[in-house]
């Protein structure tokens, strides 16, 4: 999960968006609380498209850890 977190939340621009999406969907497949935490960190990113996908994936996961 840590490596996927690093890929998803890379803001340096060195990781293409499609690779960040791949990390997101892999985290979704894992589905545990650590994955939810990694996905939630992504909301600090500037990309509206990424934020949309993050929200969509969290909804699909139905993990109550994502609730405030």
TrEMBL record:
Name of this chain's protein: Deoxyhypusine hydroxylase
Top-level taxon in the UniProt lineage: Eukaryota
SMART domains (UniProt xref): EZ_HEAT
Gene3D superfamilies: Leucine-rich Repeat Variant
A GO term, aspect molecular function: deoxyhypusine monooxygenase activity
Source organism of the structure: Syncephalis pseudoplumigaleata
PANTHER family on file: DEOXYHYPUSINE HYDROXYLASE, PBS LYASE HEAT-LIKE PROTEIN
InterPro entries for the chain: ARM-like (IPR011989), ARM-type_fold (IPR016024), PBS_lyase_HEAT (IPR004155)
């Amino acid at each position: 999960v840590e490596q996927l977190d690093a890929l998803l939340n890379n803001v340096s621009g060195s990781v293409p968006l499609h690779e960040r999406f791949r990390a997101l969907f892999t985290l979704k497949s894992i589905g545990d609380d650590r994955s939810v935490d990694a996905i939630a960190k992504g909301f600090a990113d500037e990309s509206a498209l990424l934020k949309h996908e993050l929200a969509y994936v969290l909804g699909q996961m139905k993990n109550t850890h994502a609730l405030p």
